[in-house]
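Justification of computing resources. Each target in the renewal requires a structure prediction run like the one illustrated here; the chain below, 149 residues long, is used simply to show the kind of job we budget for.
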Amino acid sequence: MSTDTIYLNTILQHYRDPRNRGTLEPCDGKARGHNPNCGDDLMVYLRTREERLSEIRFEGKGCAISLSSASMMTEAVTGKSRDEVMAIARAFRRLMQDGVATEGKGVEPAALGELAVMEGIRRYEARIKCALLAWNALEEALAGSEGDR
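Resulting structure tokens:
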């Protein structure tokens, strides 16, 4: 199976059957991701417990790339510490922008797991914003929940 086929199948699988979709109330942090250029509009909700992201959900509407990225993101960061979540977010951002997940430290590409297939999006520059939308909202939601115990 070609890399393009794996990329397409993974995106379609998460788009058709998104993981962790829905609201999360009460929550410790939430943030909206909106891209007026294409109409993607997501809300990310999270709960933190004992310095870990114990639960994360998203809701909204968007293209296959934004929704599948949000779905894969929720799976990748659940149960991780704030530092681990931010390291994964930085690695994913670098993957989208530069095609590599790390600068020799931090999260190695293999640690991105299924998210690594999203690297194919780099070929479509306009779609990178779609892939990063939920991640931007996640970072805002985490910043808003800093006061959590």
